Amino acid sequence: MLRSPLADHPGLASEAFVALGTLAEERGTDSAGVALLSGRPVVRDTRLPAGRADARRSDMRHAACRVVKGRGRFSEIWRDDLRPHVDASPVVLGHTRWATQGSPFDLVNASPLVVPGGDGPGIVATHNGDVEAGALRERFALPPATGTTDSERVFQLLAGCRRPADVTQVLGTLVGRAALAWVDRARPDRVHLARAALSPLAIAMDAEQNLYWASNPRWYREVARETGVRFTSVVMLREGTYLQVGLAPTRKRPVPRVLGRAAFQPTARGWDTDPRVWTGFTTQDMERDRLLLRHRVVAEQEAVAC
């Protein structure tokens, strides 16, 4: 969620965020997490994070960012004492994980991930999907990883991007399924959203101009019934779309808007087109999305080599 400074009822948006996290359990229950960003830019963060962690739960404080995550369902890691912090956070990232690469029992593989960025402070990021991480390691000189997920490899590359052209170049190299959301800690007033091949990503805005992103458009309809939040628009992002969203000036105060858009060619493997991509979708939503797919498909040998 990217919060609008114009919102009169910040608690409603927080309620919608928690409801979306609970609904997202249908797409993953191996682990879950929440990243709370204060909106303060970080020039470079070389300190070790402070907080507490064990084998199942962690609550770590990085500069201007707090990340709470754990093994199991979103509803199991969510705590009511986090609610005031969500209310006060300009940007909040949530994630539920279905492990495809990397052990589901190792908490370092759970998202949101805090990934260093070379000379910069790095990014806070989430990824739904499964891509060829080995191909990325062979093609790019990547630093040692802290975990064993494909997600971390993707975000190591994106953490070094400074221009939209750099971002789309990285996104164009991905082979597999990917929907991504990340925040550059040097520019925490902007959120980067991208849909590569297949993995769905739906963007919504409510009547108070808070901006949300989630995997399933149906969830917004359910959240509206459960919370009273009224969504004024819900749009499925097309494959091969990269967006920068942030606060744009108006005559009153800044409000969330799309600040930049770029396209790239998404690439999938033959086995990626599986009905499980649309887990939890209504038949109508799934058919509507499938009509707009535009990825290219590579053979197994090419997927591994590219």
From TrEMBL:
Record-linked CDD domains: Gn_AT_II
PROSITE patterns: GATASE_TYPE_2
Domain of life: Bacteria
SUPFAM superfamilies the record matches: N-terminal nucleophile aminohydrolases (Ntn hydrolases) (SSF56235)
Glutamine amidotransferase type-2 domain segment(s): 1-248
InterPro entries in alphabetical order: GATase_2_dom, Ntn_hydrolases_N
Protein's UniProt name: Glutamine amidotransferase type-2 domain-containing protein
Lineage, opening ranks: Bacteria, Bacillati, Actinomycetota, Actinomycetes, Streptosporangiales
